[in-house]
Write the structure tokens for this entry.
Amino acid sequence: MSNIIGLVVSVLFMGIIIMSGKLFEKAGKEASRKFIHIMLSNWWIIAIVFFDNMWVAALLPAVFVVVNYISFKTNLIKVMERDENSENKDSLGTVYYALSLLILALITFGPLQNPLVGLCGILVMGYGDGLAAVIGQAVESKKFKIAGDTKSIAGCITMCVITCMILAGFLYYNKADYWAIKSIVIAGLMTLIEAVSIKGTDNITVPLITSLLAFLMV
């Protein structure tokens, strides 16, 4: 019964977030996209509360891998897609996002039996990467390009700080030795990985590698 309730709550939550994204369109297409990017990462908390089966946990992410790819090709969910003039208009970032959720659901709700490991990766992707883009555009700082993707010093600092906070919370909760040092090292590494991951691939490299490192450091 808990799994069924979780699915209903998940669908309602995702629907509300996607529809709410329209409220941010006045601030620009990228603002609405980043709102959805950040807020949908909180779905993992719903999954932890309700799901006890990896197949049920993986169901909606699997559906959204398909839906997001169709939307990318047809502009089905306009509020999630990039503007035609965007330098990353050919990015499959939304597909990679759902794919990361799918992979981590299968691993952390399955063999690992520790969805908190997945939570680390998903929150770093959602809040770290998402706010890095928002603050990177809002704050004046030096910008640089990697394979056509624009990055900024302010964005990198934001990514590093938020990643460090999330990892510190996870490692401290799990009573890991030298948790503070480990958090700083992982945050620095993930900031570098995010910076060099182009065309939306950070939506798969960041959550998967963060989760792996979090698991190894406990």
